[in-house]
Amino acid sequence: DVKVTQSSRYLVKRTGEKVFLECVQDMDHENMFWYRQDPGLGLRLIYFSYDVKMKEKGDIPEGYSVSREKKERFSLILESASTNQTSMYLCASNRRIQETQYFGPGTRLLVL
Amino acid sequence: GESVGLHLPTLSVQEGDNSIINCAYSNSASDYFIWYKQESGKGPQFIIDIRSNMDKRQGQRVTVLLNKTVKHLSLQIAATQPGDSAVYFCAETNYGGSQGNLIFGKGTKLSVKP
User: Fold this and answer.
1) Which one in A81, A92, B32, B74 has a CA-CA gap of 20 to 30 Å to A111?
2) Given this model, what pLDDT does residue B3 score?
């Protein structure tokens, strides 16, 4: 079975802090994705990566950056957290870009 | 169906009944569709998929129906159980295209009454 893990289930941070969210997948998938999920807005794509050291902006990249130094690991970085970044963050991966994405359990981030 | 605004559409069914969850997709070029289940506090979980060369696909207790003419997708759950309570959402993509991440619907909340 595909396994996607995220470093934290819950995080509480203060405004202005730098926040790192880590995601690891164990299926040698080429592609990895970061979404945020908010009530009424569904899943919104922040960034994705086709390969190591490659990244592409999604629909809402502002305020975020990413890092993919190893194939299995994709990090989401909030350079200076703001209260409007309070959300559920979901990581996903897949083998081919148009195929089913497999999701991690999510990180619920609260920015105070 | 798809949600508008802050509140998800909710389907409430009795345990043991069949459930039908609908999804209207947006892109006539989409040729691959997926249903996900998301339980409270968890990440979405793959349920079943279907390609556009099919109009029906069955899994264990679930059936997906695809009507390309009206761009409509449905998920049928047989003998609904309390463990089926979750938010269900569809996703579409153009599998044969050169690009195309998944496009997700906003979901329908299924509530199963014991």
Assistant:
1) A92
2) 33
Nearest Cα residue in chain A from B93: A98
Alpha carbon of A96 to those of A43, B55, B99, B102: distances in Å? 19, 23, 10, 11
- Chosen for mutation from A9, A10, A21, A100 (greatest number of chain B CBs closer than 10 Å) is A100
Instruction: Return the half-sphere exposure (C-beta side, CA atoms, 13 A cut-off) of residue B23.
Output: 27
Is the pLDDT at B1 greater than 50? The verdict is no
Spatial separation of the C-alpha atoms in residues A40 and B71, rounded to whole Å? 22
Given a contact cutoff of 8 angstroms between Cβ atoms, the answer to whether B89 and B107 are in contact is yes
- Give chain B positions within 8 Å (CB) of A104: 43
CA distance linking residue B18 with residue B59, whole number of Å: 14
Chain B CA closest to residue A33? B101
Set of chain B residues whose Cβ sits within 8 Å of the Cβ of A27: none
Q: What is the pLDDT of residues B53-77, one digit of tens each?
A: 999 999 999 999 999 999 999 999 9
A45/A58 Cα distance (integer angstroms): 5
CB A29 within 8 A of CB A84: no
Other C-beta atoms closer than 10 Å to the C-beta of B84 total 19
A53 touches chain B (CB under 8 A): no
